[in-house]
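Notes continue from the previous slide.

Worked example: a multi-chain complex. Inputs as given:
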Amino acid sequence: MKRTLLVLMLLAGMAQFPVQAAALAEEPYREYDVMEDYVPHVSGDMRLSGSYKYWKDPKNLDWRLAGNPDDNWKLNWKFMDPPFNTSVHGGHFAVDRGDTIFHELNKTGRFAACLGAKKGSLKGLRARYPMHRADLKRVAGLEEVIERCAAKEGRVLQNGSYDNSAVSIYVASMSAGIPININVISPGPLKAAYERGRKLFHTRAGRFNLACSSCHAHQIGLHLRGNVVTTPYGDVAHFPVYRTRYQLQSLHLRFAECNLDTRTQPLLPGSRPYTDLEVFLTGLTNGYPVSVPSERD
Amino acid sequence: MRTGTIFLCLTAFVAHAALTRAALASDFPADFAANPAAVNMTQAPKVVVNSGRLEWTPFNRDLTHWPSLSYDDKRPTLKPRKVMLSEPLNGDPARGRALALARDKGYCIVCHEMPGEDWPGTVGALLLHFKKNNYPNEQVFQQIFDARAFNPNSVMPPFGTFGILDEQEIRDLVAYLQSLD
């Protein structure tokens, strides 16, 4: 009996091997710089750029750093987030718009339940996204779920559109100050997405053969013309964000802008690679409070 | 003779790019933000205030030729390439300077500090007083053509291998750099 089992296992192993080899043969040549020293918590930045010590307490930031363009990167631009930033900007109008749309859609309570609210309360919901969705059978970001749940109520809220981001920023505002907390350590779909996202972050693409990591892991604090490169840690807490030179911008549209800036073909919001990148960056933001409505230049 | 070889390689590369584009038209990754019917297929998102629809506008460059982050994109990255430079250099320093500042060409100043321009980058090596380094022309040419030949982890774009600059343009840039006292 034991011997039969052993033979069966061996056969299974042999059957698996050619499949893996074929899959490897199909992979095109890509340049990937291996860097695995990431911690799925915002404090992991102390091992990468060390700037976390300047921005770990969002209430008490150093005004002198905020006023100096050479030092903005040390604050990871958190001086444009509430509660430090008390000015009224386009992000506040978006929260109002999102509030209106949310309550139009949620007359029966079905919309909030569809988003994953517990007992109808939105508190803490944003801090748990992206999450694995049983209905989609995969990991999804909040904006993708908003599009899907709004469609069930008969309203078009395309991922990346102003109204979709407005609902997202309203939902996020109900979690303002609550630390982001997704589990990318236990084995499961979320961990798998995190690992794919980490690999993508270090994979080169585009006309200039650049990866996200070419700048945002290896050149943090250095100038690229007038910009200073920031850390990838703690960066998703303020999305969707009001861009003073653009409009309301979801995280996936920010990825599209990054791609366009580095001359790489952008992908659609909600696409698998962008969602995996979102999971990776959200893992690196674990422990940092949701900070909306926020603005960036 | 060597110039001829490089020229042949470049021609082969251009033909390769054309082929890739032809192959792509029939095999377009579904998650590309691109419009196959447009001249420049690449599209940029446009957010319209108080609208539930996301609009797209044509981007001013077609980026679909290059490997992307899409999981369905099976085109390989062009591998690092070693090239030989045939002397004399025959580069024009003035043209080289213009190329170093041109956004669509070298745009070296994004990463490198160069004389006479504000807001240089600090990512790359200083190019001030470049002549003092006494680098051979061939080494500077290879660094611009494909820096991965010296360092596989170099973040400097492979300007020659990727066809961003042609051979004469790189010769002009080398002449410009070697002229910086």
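Summary box: Residues 1-23 of chain B have pLDDT under 50 and may be disordered. The helical segments of chain B are 2-26, 93-101, 137-145, 167-178.
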